[in-house]
């Protein structure tokens, strides 16, 4: 028995001829799709690139390259030599659909790495001392917006670890989810204010339990670097964090305030520390704002009794005095010898004249 020729015979009608060629093209398209899939997946594994589906961007470990889907389609078509197999319109549509489908699959494999590159900020450097940012927070309508704003700043800071500590018995799920999305290295802790202070009349020592919990974490986990108490309702110039990274003991700088005095700052005369300027001195040895100083981890660890007191209005003063032996004359003056001002508190810290 002879094999039948693939060519339609003279006696076949028009509908049979159309079905014959349609089936042939259909099978060919599926073969080409498999070949193209193999080609693109092979190209993906060899180059270390992934396609961000529908975004016309290809990323790798060294950055983002602007490559359009059209370029990928044309390259694939040329490599498969499709020009003599099916029409231009068909092969273009076929490859476009294929790239779109593969893009979705490849994104599933690579998007987590892409996200880490895009939102985690600069990678840690072993040459940079780590920065530990201690942020007390509590549940309120503006908590997530304010933490989001702060996170957007810290995402640009190198080698930073964020200690976010809630005044609560349990972690707030939305806070945890926010921290996980940022890509910032963090610990989410809880430290409720002791009941004895909650029921007391008058001002409350807010944030003290949170900050002391952060200090406890540092004693257990840190050996070097610098830490800074940064409230979530403040706004910070990113340059501040590079200023404080070189702190050897205790560094200070001017902080702008939304008050009549408008400023809390060390006073510097002829390049040397001379005293303090603050709207509320109240006999404090260190009349400074919480946002106005940073401390070396090593310096802190050498003082096992250092902690913040539960005394409203005297938290900063009490903590700095607990770092004894340490005197105001030993303060490291930042922000160009305290000639540049931080504006404002709520706290907005600008390192601008």
- Sheet/helix structural class: alpha/beta
- The CATH topology of the largest domain corresponds to Spore Coat Polysaccharide Biosynthesis Protein SpsA, Chain A
CATH superfamily of the largest domain: Spore Coat Polysaccharide Biosynthesis Protein SpsA, Chain A
How large is the radius of gyration? 31 Å
- Quick one: CATH class of the largest domain? Alpha Beta
CATH architecture of the largest domain: Alpha-Beta Complex
The helix tally amounts to 11
What is the mean predicted local confidence, pLDDT?
76
Report how far apart the termini are: 97 Å
Give the strand content.
15-25%
* Outline type: globular
The secondary-structure element order is HEEEHHEHEHEHHEEHEEEEEHHEHE
Query: Within the largest sheet, what's the order of strands?
Result: 6-5-4-7-13-9-14
Instruction: Describe the largest sheet.
Output: 7 strands, mixed
How many discrete structural domains? 2
Helix percent reads: 25-40%
Number of strands: 15
Family: Belongs to the glycosyltransferase 43 family.
EC number: 2.4.1.135
Organism: Timema podura (Walking stick)
Keywords: Glycoprotein, Golgi apparatus, Manganese, Membrane, Metal-binding, Signal-anchor, Transferase, Transmembrane, Transmembrane helix
Structure description:
It catalyses: 3-O-(beta-D-galactosyl-(1->3)-beta-D-galactosyl-(1->4)-beta-D-xylosyl)-L-seryl-[protein] + UDP-alpha-D-glucuronate = 3-O-(beta-D-GlcA-(1->3)-beta-D-Gal-(1->3)-beta-D-Gal-(1->4)-beta-D-Xyl)-L-seryl-[protein] + UDP + H(+). It comes from Timema podura. This is Galactosylgalactosylxylosylprotein 3-beta-glucuronosyltransferase. It is found in: Golgi apparatus membrane; Membrane. Pfam families: Glyco_transf_43. With 353 residues, the chain is of the alpha/beta class. The chain has two domains: 14-119, no CATH class; 131-349, Alpha-Beta Complex (Spore Coat Polysaccharide Biosynthesis Protein SpsA, Chain A). 40% of the residues lie in helices and 18% in strands. The chain has eleven helices and 15 strands. The protein has helices at 14-47, 69-80, 88-119, 143-154, 173-182, 195-198, 208-221, 239-244, 297-301, 315-321, 335-338; strands at 50-52, 57-60, 63-65, 131-137, 160-166, 185-190, 226-229, 235-236, 250-252, 255-256, 263-269, 272-277, 293-296, 332-333, 348-349. The strands form four sheets. It has a seven-stranded mixed sheet with strand order 6-5-4-7-13-9-14, sandwiched between helices. Strands 1-2-3 form a three-stranded antiparallel sheet. A three-stranded antiparallel sheet has the order 10-11-12, with no helix packed on it. Strand 11 and strand 12 (272-277) form a beta hairpin. Helix 1 (14-47) packs parallel to helix 3 (88-119), helix 2 crosses helix 3 (88-119) and helix 4 (143-154) runs parallel beside helix 5. The radius of gyration is 31 Å and the shape is globular. The termini are far apart. 29% of the residues are buried. The model is unreliable at 1-12, 46-68, 80-90, 104-121 and 342-348 (pLDDT under 50).
């Amino acid at each position: 028995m002879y094999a039948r020729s693939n060519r339609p015979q003279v006696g076949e009608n028009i509908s049979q001829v159309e079905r014959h060629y349609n089936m042939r093209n259909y099978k060919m398209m599926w073969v080409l799709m498999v070949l193209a899939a193999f080609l693109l997946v092979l190209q993906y594994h060899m180059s270390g690139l992934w396609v961000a589906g529908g975004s016309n961007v290809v990323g790798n470990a060294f950055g983002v390259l602007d490559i359009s889907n059209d370029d990928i389609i044309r390259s694939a078509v040329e490599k498969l030599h499709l020009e003599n197999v099916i029409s231009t319109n068909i092969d273009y549509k076929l490859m476009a659909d294929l790239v779109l489908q593969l893009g979705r699959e490849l994104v599933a494999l690579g998007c987590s790495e892409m996200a880490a590159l895009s939102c985690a900020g600069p990678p840690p450097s072993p040459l940079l001392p780590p920065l530990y940012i201690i942020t007390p927070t509590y549940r309120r309508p503006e908590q997530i917006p304010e933490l989001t704003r702060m996170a957007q700043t810290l995402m640009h800071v190198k080698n930073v670890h964020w200690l976010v500590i809630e005044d609560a018995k349990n972690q707030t799920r939305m806070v945890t989810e926010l921290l996980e999305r940022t890509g910032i290295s963090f610990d989410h802790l809880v430290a409720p204010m002791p009941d004895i202070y909650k029921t007391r009349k008058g001002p409350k020592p807010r944030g003290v339990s949170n900050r002391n919990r952060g200090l406890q974490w540092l004693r257990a986990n840190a050996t070097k670097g610098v830490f800074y108490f940064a409230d979530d309702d403040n706004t910070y110039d990113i340059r501040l964090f590079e200023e404080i990274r070189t702190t050897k003991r205790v560094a200070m700088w001017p902080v702008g305030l939304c008050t009549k005095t408008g400023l809390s700052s060390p006073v510097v005369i002829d390049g040397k520390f001379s005293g303090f300027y603050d709207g509320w001195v109240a006999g404090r040895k260190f009349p400074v704002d919480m946002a106005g100083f940073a401390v070396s981890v090593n310096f802190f660890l050498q003082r096992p009794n250092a902690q913040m007191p539960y005394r409203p209005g005297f938290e900063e003063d009490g903590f700095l005095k607990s770092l004894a032996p340490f005197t105001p004359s030993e303060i490291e003056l930042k922000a160009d010898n305290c000639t540049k001002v931080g504006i404002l508190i709520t706290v907005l810290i600008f390192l601008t004249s």
